[in-house]
Specification:
Layout lengths: L5 H13 L3 H23 L3 H9 L1 H16 L12 H21 L1 H10 L3 H7 L5 H12 L3 H8 L2 H10 L5 H33 L1
Helix pairs in contact: 1-11, 2-11, 3-5, 4-7, 4-11, 5-6
């Protein structure tokens, strides 16, 4: 397995934040600020709120993931997610969230592992809209196979920013929102490149 340098990913994400326009900064800050409030309510409800809310808004998350990928690639965003697929994606996210909630409730470690399996889900669907739900789940598992520790090391430092957001009543989200979304997108791109390279290597050995 080829390891991905998560520290380098975070450095690149910070550089992208500095290149943001004021408009995009403001847009992502408002989005993340409300997401921050939602996460506080989610903690208060012991995670039950996210089972429903994040499922309902999952199509929007997919669209935002696509926009971020286009932004990094320097491409123009074009509408790609048909409305008829909204309910399918909401249903997929709901099943994943519900399973994750039950696992976290009774078995914390398996819950974390299950959550890590699906961290790139929105980007995989955004990048491969023709995939059905079963294929998207399979692709997630293939991308994250043997990378749970790596993904955890990528996300864990952001817990500090989340605590800082609470202390500053969401004001620090102005920076954190962009940094976090950039990191997720860049890591997905690297995951995809590494996965495709390894698949070519396997094919060449046959």
């Amino acid at each position: 397995m080829y390891e991905i340098d998560v520290v380098e990913i975070r450095k690149k994400a910070k550089l992208l934040v500095l290149k943001k326009s004021v408009y995009k900064f403001a847009y992502e800050f408002i989005y993340f600020f409300f997401k921050f409030l939602y996460r506080l309510l989610n903690i208060a409800s012991l995670g039950l709120l996210s089972v429903f809310i994040s499922s309902i808004f999952f199509p929007i998350t997919i669209i935002k993931s696509k926009k971020k990928l286009c932004e990094i690639a320097g491409q123009q965003y074009v509408k790609f997610l048909p409305v008829k697929k909204y309910f399918s994606k909401i249903g997929l996210k709901f099943l994943i969230n519900l399973t994750n909630f039950v696992l976290f409730l009774f078995f914390v470690v398996p819950g974390v592992i299950f959550w890590l399996n699906f961290t790139p889900l929105s980007y995989i669907i955004a990048d491969n809209i023709k995939l059905n739900n079963k294929q998207a789940i399979q692709k997630c598992k293939e991308f994250t196979k043997n990378r749970k520790t790596e993904i955890l090391s990528l996300y864990l430092p952001f817990s500090i920013y989340f605590v800082l957001s609470i202390v500053t009543f969401g004001i620090s989200s102005f920076y954190f929102a962009n940094y976090f979304t950039n990191t997720k997108a860049l890591y997905y791109i690297k995951l995809k490149e590494t996965y495709e390279y390894m698949q070519k290597q396997k094919t060449s050995l046959l």
